[in-house]
Amino acid sequence: MAADGDTLVAFTALRDHSGRGRSVTDLYVTEAADGERFGAARRMALDAYGAVAAIDVGGRAVVGGNVRVGSRLRPMIAVREPGGRWGALRRLPGGLLVEVIAVPGGGAVIFQQRYSSTGNDVRAREISPDGAIGPARDVGLDDLRFQRIAPGPDGTLAIAQGHGRAVHVVVRSPSGRWTRHRVRMGDVSEPHAAVGPDGRVGVVAIRPRFEGEDAAYGDVILTELAPRTRRQGPVHRAPVRAAGTRHAFAFGARLAFDTSGRRVVGWMEDATPDIRATLTVLPAAP
After folding, report:
1. Interior angle at CA 62, CA 43 and CA 128, nearest 5
2. What is the mean pLDDT of residues 145-168?
3. Does position 76 have pLDDT exceeding 50, yes or no?
4. What is the C-alpha to C-alpha distance for residues 202 and 150, in angstroms, rounded to an integer?
């Protein structure tokens, strides 16, 4: 969404391809001004998959997808300058497109996923506020298909990944510098990151805990990386115990910051036969 409220949406739609042995989707983009209905969709590419789109505060828009050329999928994007028309699709060397995120101050970050027999990695490219596309760089991520990219109002981006005692957070600073930090939270799963208004990075995760026969519980774990230094703060624990049940465990922990820095933590509790949602608000960290 742009600063003036314009909203850009990219999507793929199934095209009739009966008798050809496979389904085919085409890449479209549509846009709505603030408070208005979406206009007619524009088809950007045939036989494309994995639609991504972003529009920055200055109104520069990016749309992309993985377009089939011959027998292979090629990552391609198109850029529309503020007040202008869509440019031609251009190919980006590297892996498949998986996401594009607009950043405050103008510009965007494109994420590409590479797969190989020796391992996977994620590359990021910066689109500067003047529209220049930078080189791809390894940002220390293995796989972005199931991870959420958390944007902050100052331009910080954060992605949490891993499980067990090997949880890491990859952070992009407002200057465009990428760093990777190990986070000590114990033996956890499902890490999820969020960015506060001052650039601090919060991480929540689930830590399984077992007490007695046939009684499964879990703790919701919260910790933070300080702005600038990225020094890890204390680890906070919220026990999950569903009263009156023999089985209870937590899953799907999520974290968000409000504009004053207060932390909103939510999770689901599976207390058979019920599933309950829990939400708690914590004061801003000092």
Report:
1. 160
2. 90
3. yes
4. 10
| Pick from 58, 62, 84: nearest CA to 3 | 58
Percent of the chain with pLDDT over 70: 89
Which candidate, 252, 161, 241, 270, places its Cα nearest to that of 206? 252
- The closest of 61, 56, 53, 54 to 4, measured between CA atoms, is 56
Report pLDDT digits (tens) over 226-270.
999 999 999 998 766 554 455 567 788 999 999 999 999 998 887
Domain architecture of the chain: domains with CATH = 1-146 (2.120.10.10), 150-286 (2.120.10.10)
Which amino acid is residue 104, in one-letter code?
A: P
Pairing of strands 166-172, 236-240: unpaired
Alpha-carbon gap, residue 269 to 278, rounded angstroms: 7
Torsion of CA 269, 270, 275, 278, to 10 degrees: 0
pLDDT score of 215: 47
